[in-house]
Amino acid sequence: MGLAWAVLIVSGCLETLWATALEASKNFHRLGPSLLFLVSLAGSMAGLSYGVTHIPLGTAYAVWVGIGAVGTAVYGMVALGDPASVARILCLLLIVGGVVGLKLIH
User: Fold this and answer.
1) Shortest CA distance to 17 belongs to which of 34, 39, 40, 1?
2) Is-annotated flag, keyword Membrane (predicted)?
3) N or C: which end of the chain has fewer CB within 10 A?
């Protein structure tokens, strides 16, 4: 796997981190999660920026969003008690399949 793909995957994971930190910040009223949000957001955007210089924009953005969306949804189900229905999990698997497909056809 090339460096651009590795950076893009890490930045997608950072998207999950900033999304969960945003929720934990309670509308930026809690300092620690607010700072974590800002740092992880900056890292995520920097990684996406690097990724799109080496990977086609549509592919890079879809992979980044897919990783962040699935990671955030799974975190919500595991840690926050969000619903974990079979239909919801199947939809998340469809996103994963799309992300993997985009990587394979790149």
Assistant:
1) 40
2) yes
3) N
